[in-house]
Amino acid sequence: GESVGLHLPTLSVQEGDNSIINCAYSNSASDYFIWYKQESGKGPQFIIDIRSNMDKRQGQRVTVLLNKTVKHLSLQIAATQPGDSAVYFCATPGTGANSKLTFGKGITLSVRP
Amino acid sequence: NAGVTQTPKFQVLKTGQSMTLQCAQDMNHEYMSWYRQDPGMGLRLIHYSVGAGITDQGEVPNGYNVSRSTTEDFPLRLLSAAPSQTSVYFCASSYGHSGANVLTFGAGSRLTVL
Question: Are the beta carbons of B100 and A99 separated by less than 8 Å?
Answer without folding.
Answer: yes
